[in-house]
Design a protein that fits this description.
This protein has 297 residues and is of the alpha/beta class. Helices cover 37% and strands 19% of the residues. The chain folds into 2 domains: 11-133 and 234-263, 3-Layer(aba) Sandwich (D-Maltodextrin-Binding Protein, domain 2), CATH 3.40.190; 137-230 and 284-295, D-Maltodextrin-Binding Protein, domain 2, CATH 3.40.190.10. It contains 12 helices and 15 strands. This is Solute-binding protein family 3/N-terminal domain-containing protein.
């Protein structure tokens, strides 16, 4: 057991966020939950460049989740948080929330949906908005060989297809239900989702666009052309209110996010990896904002 504990400590990736060249003697240690693959990409990237000064996000090896953690570091730096981030592996969205509720971890490197944070008002603090409601558009990604899916043009066509998603991703699950697929299955693992779509066991799943100039392909999948969905919620960093110094951490993040938004850096960063990208700006949105239905009552 003691050897396992040593190995766990050795596997931790530690980054320091400083507001200047000289660190004080007692920085706050901030335990942060992060997906293992994102942590590995972050570690490699940090060896190549100063992530606190990164402006061009277009060549990142991963999408939104890697942008999240880079912006988290930059926001804490700009907000003058005297803190040291220590990353712990966790790739399950729902478990992120449970672990934050426990107070053993300060925050998640992955932004969370506001509705999920607000469901735990006694234990979670939502940062200022990172991705605004209505800005998170996604493609209906299908196998490159799925001719039936790729020919779909409207909601009637989509309703004849099968879909998969994760019911714990509340905004995704809401959006995919709005599309009324012929069959919908819950799959918790994103790698398994991709495998099932690529093998055409399921016709499609919702994935944020991957854009390389005009190429929207992702692994062996393509988005059904000219149609998309919107995930009708905003994304925020979640800070555990049970963690010591939580308000200091939240204040620093919020101050940094305010500056990053003022510089238009956040919108540009997410557009670089395909979210709310000009290439798909004119594609038809198939699902309306659920709040519009409520306002019409």
């Amino acid at each position: 057991m003691w050897l396992q504990k040593i190995l766990v400590v050795c596997l931790l990736v530690v980054f320091t966020v400083s507001s200047g060249n000289v660190y004080s003697q007692n920085p706050i240690t901030v335990p942060v939950l992060i997906a293992e693959d994102v942590k590995l990409h972050l570690e490699r990237l940090s060896k190549q460049t100063d992530i606190l000064a990164l402006n061009d996000f277009s060549q990142l090896p991963q999408g939104r989740d890697l942008v999240d953690v880079i912006l988290l570091n930059q926001a804490l730096h700009l907000g003058k948080c005297n803190c040291r981030l220590v990353y712990f592996d966790n790739s399950v969205y729902g478990r992120n929330i449970d672990l934050l509720n426990s107070g053993k971890f300060a925050m998640s490197a992955d932004t969370l949906w506001l509705s999920d944070i607000q469901a735990h008002p006694e234990s979670l603090i939502a940062s200022h908005v990172v991705i605004k409601k209505g800005d998170y558009d996604v493609g209906l990604y299908t196998s490159k060989g799925n001719e039936k899916a790729l020919k779909a043009k409207n909601t009637d066509d989509i309703s004849k297809l099968t879909a998969i998603s994760n019911r714990f991703w509340t905004a995704d699950w809401q959006a995919i239900n709005q599309l009324k697929p012929n069959k919908l299955a819950h799959i918790e693992s994103f790698p398994n989702m991709k495998r099932l779509v690529k093998s055409e066991i399921a016709d499609y799943t919702l994935i944020h666009f991957r854009v390389d100039e005009d190429d929207l392909s992702y692994e062996e999948m393509l988005p059904i052309p000219n149609i998309k969905a919107v995930l009708w919620d905003s994304r925020h960093f979640a800070i555990s209110s049970h963690f010591p110094n939580s308000q200091h951490i939240a204040n620093a993040i919020n101050a940094g996010l305010k500056l990053l938004h003022k510089q238009n850096k956040i919108t540009a960063a997410y557009q670089s990896v395909g979210i709310n990208h000009p290439v798909t700006a004119n594609w038809e949105v198939l699902n309306i904002n659920p709040d519009d239905n409520l306002n019409g009552l």
